[in-house]
Each structure stands twice: as structure tokens, then as C-alpha cells.
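My main concern about presentation is that the manuscript never shows what a single data entry looks like. For the editor and my fellow referees, an illustration may be useful. For illustration, here is how one protein appears when written out as sequence plus C-alpha cells:

***
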Amino acid sequence: MTTLAWTPFIDPIDANAVWYLLLIPIALGIALAFKAVRVGDMKKYPKHVAMMTAQIITGIVLLAIASFVVIDTLIPLLTPMPAP
């Protein structure tokens, strides 16, 4: 039976080409929720949210670079290649 409506968990969105752009709204949502509880003065709220969003994105990008270096550079140096 086919349905015309989109079902979120059965038919996921095909975002494989732009998956990294989803990091921005996720980081912003986490920062909004966390800083809403932690900031004492709401005048500082937008600045703190922007700073935390930038910190989350920077941290994930640095983790991605570090894992790329480990997987593509260090592991091949440590594991012996089989003889042909």
C-alpha cells in the first residue's frame, strides 16, 4: 500500500549530499537549550548562544580532522601491508 504523506521514520530524508549542513541547526538548538538554563542575565543570552554554537561546530570540525589524520595517516603507518 502506498501513501502520499511523508512518514519520517519509514522514509527518511535523503540528505547524504548535505549532511554536514545539518550540524549548524543541531549545534544552535543545543546551545539555545543549554544557555536558556545557564545564563543568569538574558541580555547576554544571544552572545553566549552564538559563542557556544561556534564552539560546538569548531570542536566537531577539529574532531573530524583529527580522526581523518589518524585513520588515513597513522593507522596505515602502524599496520604492515601484506606482500602481493
About this structure: The first helix runs from residue 23 to 38. Residues 27-78 form one domain.
